[in-house]
Write a structure and sequence with these properties.
With 259 residues, the protein is an all-alpha fold. It is built from 8 helices and no strands. 84% of the residues lie in helices and 0% in strands. Helix 2 packs parallel to helix 4. It is rod-shaped, with a radius of gyration of 47 Å.
Protein backbone atom coordinates (compact mmCIF):
# COMPACT_ATOMS: atom_id res chain seq x y z
CA UNK A 1 0.00 0.00 0.00
CA UNK A 2 2.86 2.35 0.87
CA UNK A 3 4.67 1.40 -2.29
CA UNK A 4 1.47 2.15 -4.27
CA UNK A 5 1.19 5.56 -2.69
CA UNK A 6 4.80 6.33 -3.42
CA UNK A 7 4.49 5.22 -7.01
CA UNK A 8 1.35 7.27 -7.57
CA UNK A 9 2.10 10.21 -5.32
CA UNK A 10 2.01 12.71 -8.11
CA UNK A 11 -1.35 11.47 -9.35
CA UNK A 12 -2.84 11.44 -5.89
CA UNK A 13 -1.64 14.98 -5.22
CA UNK A 14 -3.31 16.03 -8.46
CA UNK A 15 -6.51 14.13 -7.68
CA UNK A 16 -7.08 15.25 -4.09
CA UNK A 17 -8.05 18.86 -4.86
CA UNK A 18 -10.58 17.59 -7.37
CA UNK A 19 -12.04 15.15 -4.86
CA UNK A 20 -12.19 17.80 -2.16
CA UNK A 21 -13.75 20.26 -4.57
CA UNK A 22 -16.37 17.77 -5.64
CA UNK A 23 -17.07 16.83 -2.07
CA UNK A 24 -17.47 20.49 -1.17
CA UNK A 25 -19.82 21.08 -4.07
CA UNK A 26 -21.83 17.97 -3.22
CA UNK A 27 -22.01 18.88 0.43
CA UNK A 28 -23.03 22.43 -0.41
CA UNK A 29 -25.67 21.18 -2.79
CA UNK A 30 -26.97 18.78 -0.18
CA UNK A 31 -27.12 21.50 2.43
CA UNK A 32 -28.82 23.84 -0.02
CA UNK A 33 -31.29 21.12 -0.99
CA UNK A 34 -32.01 20.44 2.63
CA UNK A 35 -32.65 24.14 3.18
CA UNK A 36 -34.95 24.22 0.16
CA UNK A 37 -36.97 21.31 1.50
CA UNK A 38 -37.29 23.02 4.85
CA UNK A 39 -38.23 26.23 3.14
CA UNK A 40 -40.78 24.46 0.97
CA UNK A 41 -42.18 22.69 4.01
CA UNK A 42 -42.44 25.99 5.86
CA UNK A 43 -44.13 27.58 2.85
CA UNK A 44 -46.57 24.69 2.61
CA UNK A 45 -47.44 24.96 6.29
CA UNK A 46 -47.89 28.73 5.96
CA UNK A 47 -50.15 28.23 2.95
CA UNK A 48 -52.21 25.62 4.76
CA UNK A 49 -52.56 27.91 7.78
CA UNK A 50 -53.62 30.81 5.56
CA UNK A 51 -56.10 28.59 3.69
CA UNK A 52 -57.56 27.33 6.97
CA UNK A 53 -57.93 30.86 8.28
CA UNK A 54 -59.51 32.02 5.02
CA UNK A 55 -61.91 29.07 5.01
CA UNK A 56 -62.87 29.77 8.62
CA UNK A 57 -63.48 33.42 7.81
CA UNK A 58 -65.63 32.45 4.82
CA UNK A 59 -67.59 30.01 6.95
CA UNK A 60 -68.14 32.60 9.67
CA UNK A 61 -69.26 35.13 7.10
CA UNK A 62 -71.63 32.59 5.54
CA UNK A 63 -73.00 31.66 8.95
CA UNK A 64 -73.52 35.32 9.78
CA UNK A 65 -75.29 35.92 6.47
CA UNK A 66 -77.48 32.85 7.00
CA UNK A 67 -78.36 33.95 10.54
CA UNK A 68 -79.20 37.44 9.30
CA UNK A 69 -81.37 36.02 6.50
CA UNK A 70 -83.14 33.72 8.95
CA UNK A 71 -83.77 36.59 11.37
CA UNK A 72 -85.16 38.75 8.56
CA UNK A 73 -87.42 35.95 7.32
CA UNK A 74 -88.69 35.25 10.84
CA UNK A 75 -89.36 38.95 11.35
CA UNK A 76 -91.44 39.06 8.18
CA UNK A 77 -93.30 35.90 9.20
CA UNK A 78 -94.13 37.42 12.58
CA UNK A 79 -95.37 40.64 10.98
CA UNK A 80 -97.57 38.63 8.60
CA UNK A 81 -98.91 36.39 11.37
CA UNK A 82 -99.68 39.28 13.73
CA UNK A 83 -101.34 41.29 10.95
CA UNK A 84 -103.44 38.32 9.89
CA UNK A 85 -104.60 37.67 13.45
CA UNK A 86 -105.73 41.29 13.79
CA UNK A 87 -107.51 41.13 10.44
CA UNK A 88 -109.37 37.88 11.14
CA UNK A 89 -110.28 38.98 14.64
CA UNK A 90 -111.84 42.18 13.33
CA UNK A 91 -113.85 40.18 10.79
CA UNK A 92 -114.98 37.82 13.55
CA UNK A 93 -115.99 40.70 15.81
CA UNK A 94 -118.06 42.27 13.02
CA UNK A 95 -120.00 39.01 12.70
CA UNK A 96 -120.52 38.86 16.48
CA UNK A 97 -121.87 42.40 16.54
CA UNK A 98 -124.33 41.37 13.84
CA UNK A 99 -125.48 38.36 15.88
CA UNK A 100 -126.65 40.75 18.61
CA UNK A 101 -128.60 42.86 16.10
CA UNK A 102 -130.29 40.43 13.73
CA UNK A 103 -130.90 36.71 13.10
CA UNK A 104 -127.84 34.47 12.98
CA UNK A 105 -126.92 33.60 9.40
CA UNK A 106 -124.23 31.14 10.39
CA UNK A 107 -121.44 33.50 9.34
CA UNK A 108 -119.71 33.19 12.70
CA UNK A 109 -118.47 29.66 11.96
CA UNK A 110 -116.27 30.44 8.91
CA UNK A 111 -115.10 33.68 10.56
CA UNK A 112 -114.16 31.73 13.67
CA UNK A 113 -112.36 29.08 11.60
CA UNK A 114 -110.24 31.78 9.95
CA UNK A 115 -109.42 33.25 13.34
CA UNK A 116 -108.37 29.84 14.67
CA UNK A 117 -106.14 29.30 11.64
CA UNK A 118 -104.50 32.71 12.06
CA UNK A 119 -103.99 32.02 15.75
CA UNK A 120 -102.40 28.65 15.00
CA UNK A 121 -99.96 30.14 12.50
CA UNK A 122 -98.93 32.80 15.00
CA UNK A 123 -98.30 30.14 17.64
CA UNK A 124 -95.66 28.62 15.35
CA UNK A 125 -93.60 31.77 14.73
CA UNK A 126 -94.25 34.07 17.70
CA UNK A 127 -92.27 34.21 20.93
CA UNK A 128 -94.01 33.08 24.11
CA UNK A 129 -95.10 36.57 25.14
CA UNK A 130 -96.88 37.27 21.84
CA UNK A 131 -98.36 33.77 21.65
CA UNK A 132 -99.81 34.21 25.14
CA UNK A 133 -101.28 37.60 24.22
CA UNK A 134 -102.89 36.12 21.11
CA UNK A 135 -104.49 33.36 23.18
CA UNK A 136 -106.11 35.98 25.38
CA UNK A 137 -107.61 37.60 22.27
CA UNK A 138 -108.91 34.24 21.10
CA UNK A 139 -110.42 33.41 24.51
CA UNK A 140 -112.19 36.78 24.65
CA UNK A 141 -113.63 36.20 21.18
CA UNK A 142 -114.80 32.71 22.15
CA UNK A 143 -116.62 34.10 25.19
CA UNK A 144 -118.44 36.59 22.99
CA UNK A 145 -119.31 33.90 20.47
CA UNK A 146 -120.79 31.63 23.13
CA UNK A 147 -122.87 34.48 24.50
CA UNK A 148 -124.04 35.43 21.02
CA UNK A 149 -125.09 31.87 20.21
CA UNK A 150 -126.81 31.32 23.52
CA UNK A 151 -128.53 34.67 23.98
CA UNK A 152 -127.97 36.76 20.89
CA UNK A 153 -131.41 36.04 19.43
CA UNK A 154 -133.26 36.95 22.62
CA UNK A 155 -131.16 40.09 22.96
CA UNK A 156 -131.93 41.50 19.53
CA UNK A 157 -135.60 40.49 19.83
CA UNK A 158 -135.87 42.28 23.17
CA UNK A 159 -134.08 45.35 21.80
CA UNK A 160 -136.43 45.35 18.82
CA UNK A 161 -139.42 45.36 21.16
CA UNK A 162 -138.03 48.23 23.20
CA UNK A 163 -137.23 50.14 20.00
CA UNK A 164 -140.79 50.22 18.65
CA UNK A 165 -141.66 53.85 18.00
CA UNK A 166 -144.51 55.47 19.91
CA UNK A 167 -146.45 56.30 16.75
CA UNK A 168 -146.43 52.70 15.55
CA UNK A 169 -149.73 50.82 16.12
CA UNK A 170 -147.94 47.91 17.78
CA UNK A 171 -146.25 50.17 20.32
CA UNK A 172 -148.75 49.42 23.10
CA UNK A 173 -148.51 45.66 22.75
CA UNK A 174 -144.72 45.81 22.49
CA UNK A 175 -144.52 48.00 25.62
CA UNK A 176 -146.70 45.60 27.59
CA UNK A 177 -144.64 42.62 26.44
CA UNK A 178 -141.42 44.30 27.57
CA UNK A 179 -142.87 45.10 30.97
CA UNK A 180 -144.17 41.52 31.36
CA UNK A 181 -140.76 40.09 30.41
CA UNK A 182 -139.00 42.37 32.90
CA UNK A 183 -141.44 41.32 35.62
CA UNK A 184 -140.86 37.65 34.89
CA UNK A 185 -137.06 38.11 34.93
CA UNK A 186 -137.24 39.87 38.29
CA UNK A 187 -139.55 37.20 39.73
CA UNK A 188 -137.27 34.41 38.52
CA UNK A 189 -134.17 36.11 39.91
CA UNK A 190 -135.88 36.48 43.30
CA UNK A 191 -137.40 32.98 43.12
CA UNK A 192 -140.72 34.65 43.92
CA UNK A 193 -143.83 32.67 44.71
CA UNK A 194 -145.66 34.19 41.73
CA UNK A 195 -142.88 33.35 39.30
CA UNK A 196 -145.05 31.01 37.18
CA UNK A 197 -147.85 33.57 37.09
CA UNK A 198 -145.32 36.12 35.77
CA UNK A 199 -144.19 33.58 33.18
CA UNK A 200 -147.75 33.02 31.99
CA UNK A 201 -148.40 36.75 31.86
CA UNK A 202 -145.29 37.34 29.78
CA UNK A 203 -146.21 34.48 27.47
CA UNK A 204 -149.70 35.92 26.98
CA UNK A 205 -148.24 39.35 26.23
CA UNK A 206 -145.93 37.89 23.60
CA UNK A 207 -148.87 36.11 21.98
CA UNK A 208 -150.30 39.55 21.20
CA UNK A 209 -147.37 40.26 18.89
CA UNK A 210 -148.08 38.64 15.52
CA UNK A 211 -144.58 39.49 14.28
CA UNK A 212 -143.13 36.99 16.76
CA UNK A 213 -143.24 33.27 16.06
CA UNK A 214 -143.40 30.57 18.74
CA UNK A 215 -139.63 29.92 18.72
CA UNK A 216 -138.83 33.59 19.16
CA UNK A 217 -141.32 33.93 22.02
CA UNK A 218 -139.76 30.86 23.65
CA UNK A 219 -136.26 32.38 23.28
CA UNK A 220 -137.42 35.57 25.01
CA UNK A 221 -139.03 33.66 27.88
CA UNK A 222 -136.02 31.37 28.33
CA UNK A 223 -133.67 34.32 28.40
CA UNK A 224 -135.62 35.80 31.32
CA UNK A 225 -134.32 32.91 33.42
CA UNK A 226 -130.80 34.29 32.99
CA UNK A 227 -129.29 37.44 34.51
CA UNK A 228 -129.69 40.57 32.41
CA UNK A 229 -127.30 40.26 29.49
CA UNK A 230 -126.28 43.92 29.29
CA UNK A 231 -123.59 43.98 32.03
CA UNK A 232 -122.08 40.68 30.90
CA UNK A 233 -122.05 41.75 27.26
CA UNK A 234 -120.34 45.02 28.15
CA UNK A 235 -117.79 43.11 30.23
CA UNK A 236 -116.99 40.69 27.40
CA UNK A 237 -116.58 43.49 24.85
CA UNK A 238 -114.30 45.33 27.27
CA UNK A 239 -112.21 42.21 27.93
CA UNK A 240 -111.82 41.66 24.20
CA UNK A 241 -110.79 45.25 23.60
CA UNK A 242 -108.23 45.07 26.41
CA UNK A 243 -106.87 41.76 25.09
CA UNK A 244 -106.43 43.22 21.61
CA UNK A 245 -104.68 46.32 22.97
CA UNK A 246 -102.31 44.08 24.91
CA UNK A 247 -101.64 41.99 21.81
CA UNK A 248 -100.87 45.02 19.64
CA UNK A 249 -98.57 46.45 22.32
CA UNK A 250 -96.75 43.14 22.65
CA UNK A 251 -96.47 42.78 18.86
CA UNK A 252 -94.93 46.24 18.57
CA UNK A 253 -92.36 45.32 21.21
CA UNK A 254 -91.51 41.98 19.59
CA UNK A 255 -91.25 43.53 16.13
CA UNK A 256 -89.21 46.49 17.45
CA UNK A 257 -91.71 49.05 16.25
CA UNK A 258 -90.81 52.33 17.88
CA UNK A 259 -92.88 55.50 18.04
Amino acid sequence: MIDFLKEHQAFIVWLLPIVFTFAGVWLGAKVQAGGGVAQAKAAKEAAETAATATLQAVREQADHAAAAAHAAALHEQRISAATNLIRTDRAFVRVLHTMFREPDTGASTPAYDELIHAWGVLQLVAPVSLATASTRVLNAGQSLQRLARQRGEAYWLYMRLTGVSVWRPEYGDARRAVEALDAFRAAHAADAANMMAMHDAASAALDQLPALDAEQASALLSDCMEPEIGPRLDQYWREHEEAMKEFVSCARAVLSVND
